[in-house]
Amino acid sequence: MKKAKVAVIGYSGDINKDPVKTLADLCLELGRELGKRYVVFTGGRNGVMELVAKGVREVGGTCVGILPWDGSDANEYNSVVIATGLDFQMRSFIMIKSVDVVISVGGEIGTAIEILAAYANMKPVILLRNTGGWTDRIVNVLIEGLYLDNRKLAPVLQAYTVCDVIELTERMVGLR
């Protein structure tokens, strides 16, 4: 059976500094659980991306890093590195188009753009709540608590634990 593909988006930055440091254990757990079940895609750099990729590697999973420019800032835990030659936003669109579900952890403006891109491309988004950034802020604009506009292109779901993320992901990829 073909494995579903999921993207994890979120904060970039030094994994030893907040806000990423506070989320380290959560990101590692998320990576491990996703890595057991799916092919995981990230932006391939530091921060949430690095920690999730590390968790994926710990369980022998596959993590694909979709990187901007020449990929020289790839983290060491990526199984596959794709250096797109593109800027950050355009690289993100490649990642979004390549997956079935997008999972958001914290994040600044790049993460907000990725959430919107996922929705516009009819990809379900799972917000791992209480992680800060746009993951928590964007819920304030959801229509009916689920959608980013009146077209209702794809659900924007809320999870509070890694277990919730897995259950929602399985439902979104049709495994349950």
Number of DSSP E strands: 7
Q: State the CATH architecture.
A: 3-Layer(aba) Sandwich
Largest sheet: 7 strands, parallel
For this structure, the CATH topology is: Rossmann fold
Radius of gyration over C-alpha positions, nearest whole angstrom = 14 Å
**Contiguous runs where pLDDT drops below 50 for at least 5 residues:** none
- Mean pLDDT, to the nearest integer, reads 97
Strand arrangement, major sheet: 4-3-2-1-5-6-7
N-to-C series of helices and strands? EHEHEEHEHEHEH
Distance between the termini: 14 Å
How would you characterize the overall build of this protein?
This protein is α/β, with parallel strands linked by helices and 176 residues long. The protein has one domain: 3-Layer(aba) Sandwich (Rossmann fold). The chain has 6 helices and 7 strands. A 7-stranded parallel β-sheet has the order 4-3-2-1-5-6-7, with helices on both faces. Helix 4 links the parallel strand 5 and strand 6. Helix 1 crosses helix 2 and helix 3 runs parallel beside helix 4. The longest helix is centred in the first third of the chain and has 14 residues. The radius of gyration is 14 Å and the shape is globular. The mean pLDDT is 97.
